[in-house]
Amino acid sequence: MSKANQLGAGRFGGGVRPVSARRQAVAAATGVPTDGVAPPTELPPHRISLNPDNPRSSLGDLTDLAGSLQTHGQKQAITVMNRDAYIKANPEREADLEPDTTHVVIDGSSRLAAARDAGLIAIKVMVSDDQGANSEELLESALVANIHRQDLPELDEARALQRLLAIHGSQTALAKRLHRSQGWVSQRLALLSLTPELQARIGEEPIDLLRAVGSKPPEQQEAALSALKQERARKEAEKQERKRRKQTDAPAAQATGKAEGYYGVIEDGSADELPSTPPKRRTAHGQARTGEGAPSLPAQSTADEAAAGGADQQPKRFPYEDGVTAALHLIHKMPPDEFDKMLDRLIKHRDSQAVSAR
After folding, report:
1. Does the keyword field hold Metal-binding (predicted)?
2. Which of 26, 103, 189, 191 has the most CB atoms within 10 Å of its CB?
3. Cα–Cα dist 246/312, whole Å
4. Any bridge partners for residue 78, and if so which?
């Protein structure tokens, strides 16, 4: 029994993998043992083939990613399969694999290509031959890994979802597989229904509006997009106008010393806002009396007082003349228990007034 069989697992916890007939033939020809070898944790980039089923139509500009790999190193390993395992599950793709490679990337095509551009001699890998037992499962593994990336181009994302939809059969099943809502899937698939002219403008037009018009007949999409853009522009203009008015009104309110609402009255708490003696209240029999437990309240201001107050830059006084505003003020400002006490007192007062009027 070999030492690897006695240990039972690779250095990094990976299980010992079975060896294919092809690798056994290579071992016999080269004299290099392959039995019981743990999966590698690093591989030369040129020994890993790019995935023929990569959802990205283009890997794009890899300059920044290559620079980051050179400067900061690789933070996350890419996922690969043994070439033999990949071909067994996806035999029709063998001719599309790069020659003289031993593995195929499943997740990490951009990092692999950037590592080549950066001239790295090795790249961290995680070998996982259970990515799929057939071509559909392999495709799903590659697509799902890319779907969850934020930088996948919108049209590539829609095409990937379309291919996954063919596997799962319905948008509901696909949404469940991706842990997304059915609406999320539907909106992204809508890009595939756009006219070629509108698809070419993806990246220039708001993507949410393009998805919204994708469900309309092709001859209506351009007009629908224009209408949605105009409506959005109108709402944005209204928003900016409200913001401008608020900024304009704020200095004016500060210059006059007036509070914007009535809420500054109670918070101010100035002693000179309270009357020196409690106001007179009428009993149920119409007799005027002072105090007797009634709370002291700010006196209602007259027109002359208001004018004088404006000169002294005093805040607006309590709105005795506006019952609705006064009630809303008290609802928001008064503690619930005290508000209930006040409400009971007002109800009793109203009832007593009704009895007196009979």
Report:
1. no
2. 103
3. 24
4. 125
* In the block, residue with structure tokens 């043992």: 33
Model pLDDT, residue 37:
55
The predicted-structure confidence for 208-231, as pLDDT tens digits, reads as follows 999 999 989 999 999 999 999 999
pLDDT of residue 274: 41
Cβ(298)–Cβ(317) below 8 Å:
yes
The contacts of residue 154 (CB under 8 Å, 6+ apart) are 188, 191, 202, 203, 207
d(CA 128, CA 276): 85
CB crowding 25-57: b at 16 or more within 10 Å, else e:
eeeeeeeeeeebbbbbeebebebbbbbbbbbbe
Note the pLDDT of residue 267: 46
Tell me if residue 290 falls in helix, strand or coil: strand
User: Residue 173 — φ and ψ, nearest 5°?
Assistant: -65, -40
pLDDT of residue 296: 46
Q: Specify the DSSP element, H or E, that contains 105.
A: strand 103-107
Nearest to 51 by CA among 6, 93, 114: 93
253: tokens are 């309110």
Backbone torsions φ then ψ of 131, nearest 5 degrees: -70, -15
CA-closest candidate to residue 53, choices 140, 151, 152 = 140
What angle, rounded to 10 degrees, do the helices at 154-168 and 135-147 form?
Answer: 140
pLDDT of residue 75: 86
Query: Positive or negative CA dihedral for 330, 333, 339, 342?
Result: negative
For 282-339, how does the pLDDT look when each residue is reduced to its tens digit (9 = 90+)? 444 444 444 444 444 554 444 454 444 444 555 667 778 888 788 887 887 888 888 8
DSSP 2: -
Q: What CA–CA distance (Å, rounded) separates 345 from 339?
A: 10
Task: State the residue for tokens 């003020």.
Answer: 329
